[in-house]
Write a structure and sequence with these properties.
about 40% strand, disordered C terminus, 4 domains, elongated, six-stranded mixed β-sheet
């Protein structure tokens, strides 16, 4: 009795183009040196897993027009008259159909199954070219601080040739740290130190690799090559990032009252410094001249400062901090190595508030307002002789100076006030404003720091319109006195 065969009872042929590569070369591009009378024979292989299928290589131009079918897996490119060519592979079963002089991508390659390779090899036939290299902004020597300057240095070459080109990054000992084809070198990933970049135009295979000591007196490729006429020196400094400084509630502007004997603390939080860097706070004036180069605490007391406008900055740095009193930012280095200023600064206005005198915008200190006459009774106010750098609020009070409303603007419409007499005061202050409706403007603290009322007030006398009876006006009650613009 026949027993079933545990093996395959029949064979299913399968075509698989796979990927192709050139022996001894990395990537999908091969550079050859034409006209040097040296044979440029390149061998190819494939990863095809086609079962029971045949495999063949094709030579095409850049439009994929088939120039020849390779009899094996090697081609000599020395005397071919094209600047750029392609090698394709194909797996097929059945009877092969020649695609010569046809577009390989649309040709039928057999009367059965066939499959093109997943990639093609580009063959560049062009001699290396003598050239020069530089950074993208035409520098040949760069001091680079990761974080401040980004993370990469971009290099370029003057060469227009299509021959292979690499940038060779070596350390101070001449050891190859990187073989770079794009010109974009990430120095953030490198150690602090001095590096040299060489440019190499070449064909064939590179004869050195990362970790080798670069020998400029030895052949650098298996075919023609030309070193660039210059090198680029890259000095990788410390990693710095100024980031942002912060305050307790996110404020970036503070007003303080110097010389009153009360601490004017501004709390500034520096960011966490980058590994290997230090961070410090320092203070400039509003012209960015350094007035205090080293703040030892996050709690900065401005009470002892001279009146003026100050800026608190942060700086991330490596090496030694060299910022000095009087130095203007941008006109000298702040460190012997790398540094990066904070993205922001905190402004502190240190000034004793002075209320000055208050009038309406047309110079009056007493005005009459006809109530509810349908016309806006808007008056603007002007302070004279007072401090200009500190915040100002305007207080509406009754004749006993009890605060009825507070405004941040200097223009109000009094048309809806109840009949009676009112006062408008100006108050300039530092710190946190504390005044609130119901408080006595004479007796209550108006801020938690310094404050100063204007030396006078403007009287607002609200009278009834001629068409309204006093009895009707009285029914409005005391709850109707809020003026537009007050809060």
């Amino acid at each position: 009795m026949l027993q079933p065969n545990p093996k395959r009872a029949f064979t299913l042929l399968e075509a698989d183009g796979g990927r192709i590569e050139a022996d001894g070369f990395e990537g999908d591009t091969v550079f050859v040196c034409p006209g040097d009378q040296v044979q440029d024979s390149i061998f190819f292989n494939t990863s095809s897993q086609g079962y029971g299928a045949s495999y063949r290589y094709f030579l095409t131009n850049v439009s994929n027009l088939v120039l020849s079918e390779l009899p094996g897996n090697v081609q000599n490119f020395e005397n071919l008259g094209f600047r750029e060519l392609r090698i394709w592979g194909a797996s097929f079963t059945g009877n092969f159909a020649s695609p010569r002089n046809k577009n390989l991508l649309t040709a039928t390659l057999s009367d059965a199954c066939f499959d093109l390779s997943d990639n093609f090899l580009t063959i560049i036939r062009e001699a290396p070219e003598a050239t020069s290299i530089s950074t993208i902004d035409n520098k040949q020597e760069v001091y680079f601080c990761p974080g401040k300057d980004g993370s990469t240095v971009q290099l370029k070459t003057a060469s227009k040739a299509k021959a292979g080109f690499v940038y060779i990054l070596t350390d101070a000992s001449g050891v190859v740290n990187e073989i770079n084809r794009t010109g974009s070198i990430d120095l953030k990933a490198k150690a602090v130190g001095v590096y040299t970049v060489y440019g190499l135009s070449y064909t064939g295979r590179l004869l050195f690799r990362t970790g080798d000591t670069l020998n400029l007196n030895a052949p650098l490729s298996s075919s023609c090559f030309v070193l660039a006429s210059n090198q680029v020196k890259l000095t990788r400094g410390g990693e710095v990032d100024g980031k942002s400084i912060a305050t307790l509630f996110g404020d970036s502007l503070f007003y303080t009252c110097p010389g009153d004997g009360v601490s004017d603390l501004v709390i500034v939080f520096p960011p966490q410094p980058e590994n290997g860097s230090e961070y410090r706070l320092f203070i400039t004036d509003d012209q960015n001249r350094i007035v205090f180069p080293d703040v030892q605490s996050d709690l900065i007391d401005f009470d002892a400062s001279d009146p003026g406008v100050y800026r608190v900055w942060g700086v991330s740095y490596t090496g030694q901090f060299v910022g000095q009193f009087g130095m203007r930012l941008g006109e000298g280095a702040l460190s012997s190595d790398c540094y990066d200023l904070s993205d922001n600064f905190i402004t502190v206005v240190a000034q004793m508030p002075v209320g000055g005198a208050l009038t309406t915008s047309d110079g009056q200190t007493k005005v009459n307002v006809v109530r509810a006459d349908g016309k806006p009774d808007t008056y603007g106010f002007v302070r004279t002789g007072g401090s200009s750098g500190t915040p100002v609020r305007y207080l509406l009070t009754d004749i006993d100076n009890v605060i009825l409303a507070i405004a941040t603007t200097d223009s109000f419409d009094f048309d809806q006030l109840a009949v009676g007499e009112y006062r408008v005061w100006g108050v300039t202050f530092t710190g946190i404003f504390l005044a609130a409706p119901g408080a006595d403007a004479d007796l209550s603290p108006l801020s938690d720091n310094c404050f100063s009322l204007t030396s006078n007030f403007v009287t607002i006398n609200v009278i009834a319109s001629s068409g309204l009876s006093n009895a009707w006006i009285a029914t409005l009650g005391p709850g109707k006195e809020a003026a537009q613009g007050f809060s």
